[in-house]
Amino acid sequence: MAFEWSIIPTSLVILLSGFFIAGTAGGLLPGAHMNSLVLFIGSAGILTAIGIGVMQAAHSISSLIPAIFLGAPSESTSLATLPAHRLLFKGEGYRALYLSLFGSVLGCIGFIVMALPVWFFLPFLETTLVSGMGIILSFIIAFSILGDAPGRRLKALFVFLLSGIFGMLVLKGSIPLENKLFCMLSGAFGIGGLAFAIITDAGKGTRIPVQKLKVSASSVKTSSLIIPAVCGTLSGLIVGVLPATSTSHAVFLTLTLAAPFLTMIGEEAYLIAVGASQTSNFLFSVLTLRILGKARNGTVVAINKSLSATGGITNPQVLAITGAFLSAILLAVLLAGFAAKPLLKLASGANGLIVNVTVIAALIAMTFITSGFFGLLIALTSASIGILCMSLEARRTHVLGMLLMPTLLFYLGL
């Protein structure tokens, strides 16, 4: 029997399409965080909760595009910014997006595989992670610094401590948390990286090469995708369960632990892991809300508020939100893959200096619009730390000390 589309109310299609479009637009606009977008949602009920899930899915995928093509990171895509930009200037921007989208789908698959075990063991998992996270983070930080080249370890430690102290000062400020994160990360990974390219002449006179619009299946081995995807999925679980953690340093944490087992280039592993964490984070956050009654991010807080009048989220509602999210992810991935090719054709041949200066100006403008002079000061200071890190030839992941140090102190009770 053929499916009758007429049984789906037109009003429902229009409603969910509106949420999807809003999420897509928000992801494409640097600085438009989901926590800010959901503030404009006034209605309540299960349809609103499902719509928020659809919006989150669209936002997760579309936010990859400015991170890859413009070097404009969000909190969750900051680690993907530099690797993606490098591939763009090698003519492989489509490959960068392909890997990120692949990771997003694998993150959904990873969630489906892990959902049932997590459902039963989540209370125990939360207790274990909370009690041991201080020790785990201490180990990861030490491992990362000592894992740098012998001649650069003191430089790495200096960058980490400087970034950490700066992050602690910023997080005590009065502007919203998502704005602080955007200012710090867009400064360190966006403005700083692009400015360093200009300073060192890497971005002067260089034209973005003609982009390869196909990805050879033989160049992406399925076996090499598994570990980065698992790392990204576990990162999503960690952030979905624990307070005071972010996707950026959860990905950094899991990939650092898995480094000896990675079989693909580091920058590509980051792209896959970031994509997987983008999608799995939300899904695990919904499970955490249902099982523990705790909302770990602004999007899930909005879902909880939408369902509070009905007594809280139920199992059927979890399934409905999850199903809508997964469906929207598939649609968003298809649209992103389709839209990327004309965008890359348009970018091919563009002057690298003009592109870098334009993106820096746009990031500065967006920072000022969202966070004022204080936010601009944060972004420019972060950019200075990022430039210093690259000048010292330390790995840029050490700049994540601005997130890792405050989180470490939180879990150590200091």
Plain-language structure description:
With 414 residues, the protein is mainly α. It has one domain (13-411). Helix content is 74%, strand content 0%. It has 15 helices and no strands. Helix 6 (93-146) packs across helix 9, helix 6 crosses helix 15 (401-411) and helix 7 (153-171) crosses helix 15. The longest helix has 54 residues, at 93-146. The chain is globular and about 60 Å long. The termini are far apart. 51% of the residues are buried. The model is unreliable at 1-7 (pLDDT under 50).
- Helices, by number, come to 15
Q: Determine the strand fraction and express it as a percent band.
A: under 5%
Number of domains: 1
The geometry reads as globular
Can you summarize this structure?
The chain has 15 helices and no strands.
SSE blueprint and pairings:
Elements: H1 10-28, H2 34-37, H3 46-62, H4 64-69, H5 78-88, H6 93-146, H7 153-171, H8 177-199, H9 222-241, H10 247-258, H11 266-292, H12 298-307, H13 315-347, H14 352-391, H15 401-411
Helix pairs in contact: 1-3, 3-11, 3-12, 3-13, 5-6, 5-8, 5-11, 6-9, 6-11, 6-13, 6-15, 7-14, 7-15, 8-14, 9-10, 9-11, 10-11, 11-13
Looking at this protein, list some descriptive labels:
74% helix; 15 helices; globular; mainly alpha; 414 residues
